[in-house]
Amino acid sequence: MNSNLDVFSLIANALIVVAAWVTGEAGRVAVASGLGGFARWWNTDRVRIRDGAASAVGGLITGTYLWPFVLIVMGFPFGGIEETPNSIAAAAFIAGAIGMSGMKIITAMVEAKVKDASKPDGD
Asked: Is the Cβ–Cβ distance between 71 and 88 less than 8 Å?
């Protein structure tokens, strides 16, 4: 048995599983949420790449859990929006962009605490 062939088949199977997940509903929500956070970061000063990664993760986390609430809020002016895969992805994207703002606030609070902790006691 060729061990190289086994490694390649393992990698191919892993890629197929990831592709199936990304094209499914949960994957679409995760990708849309992360891209919402990334898009929000992209439209700011973009000072640090670390902030971009944190924005994408923050968008992914908040979008995954808050898309139902955003979908309800989006539906108020129209009398409700049906839960189709596209409307769920749009709500996840918006929730991800909002979540990026939350991550920015948390990052600023952590940086302020670190700055305060690094000051000498006499100042």
From this structure: yes
